[in-house]
Amino acid sequence: MVFTMKPRFQDKVAVVTGAAQGIGRGVALRLADEGAKLVLVDRSELVYELRDELASSHPQTPVLVLTADMEQATDCQRTMQAAVAHFGRIDVLINNVGGTIWAKPFEHYQVDEIEAEVRRSLFPTLWCCHAALPQMLAQGSGSIVNVSSIATRAINRVPYGAAKGGVNALTACLAFETAQRGVRVNAIATGGTEAPPRRIPRNAAEQTEQEKVWYQQIIDQTVQSSLMKRYGTIDEQVGAIVFLASDEASYITGVTLPVGGGDLG
Ligand SMILES: NC(=O)c1ccc[n+]([C@@H]2O[C@H](COP(=O)([O-])OP(=O)(O)OC[C@H]3O[C@@H](n4cnc5c(N)ncnc54)[C@H](O)[C@@H]3O)[C@@H](O)[C@H]2O)c1
Description:
The protein has 265 residues and is of the alpha/beta class. 44% of the residues lie in helices and 17% in strands. The radius of gyration is 18 Å and the shape is globular.
């Protein structure tokens, strides 16, 4: 028997936040491979490079590109309104914006740094879920995947871990509220992921020697805590995100799936 996989996102409208690089970019390319109409959002103008790349690699893929700051509720609302104005619906929302800004033991964080971590890694997901939900509920369908982290049990980034713990909780609670109205909400707890050097840095300041040591401790602990004793690839994260977003996961909601080589976070 020949097994032919149909494009899972044919004619579906998918919003991907933080699409300019890394995991978000990988998700956007995979969704394009599988037939989606894309709304790509990032704070960085580099997201326009991805649009140009898609124009040559996937000329049939309709793409709307926006720059916006997902830490701002109004920008998240503007993004979802633009998606609906352009494509008429939102079937899939991938909340990918996040990432630790600092790496150090908790006692070394300043109060304003703790707030910045929560703004970066909790609020974009909270705001975007809130902004997309009315459209999905009106449609009676939708699939949200939040990109969380195994860093909910990890060293040298307590504020980030706390923010991602919030993402896991909002995933479970929102799924509870929306399951009978056609909207699924899931998350992946991303493990350590190899990626090319970041063109958009999470923190533009040069690392001190001490900060390099603290960052290396994160890498060592991440490898040690995984059963496979290695980092994963962007493709390994993308596969899980896209599965949860697709109708193949139609009986799965409220779940945070660890994708960390056996590290459950
Ligand atoms: N890379 C890893 O090892 C790893 C591990 C665990 C979890 N994660 C999670 O996976 C997700 C993606 O990680 P990554 O390493 O690909 O990220 P990255 O830092 O490489 O890229 C993040 C993208 O989001 C954009 N962005 C950041 N803040 C934004 C904002 N306020 N508004 C709009 N766009 C914004 C950036 O410009 C960038 O394009 C994050 O949520 C991160 O916490 C990553």
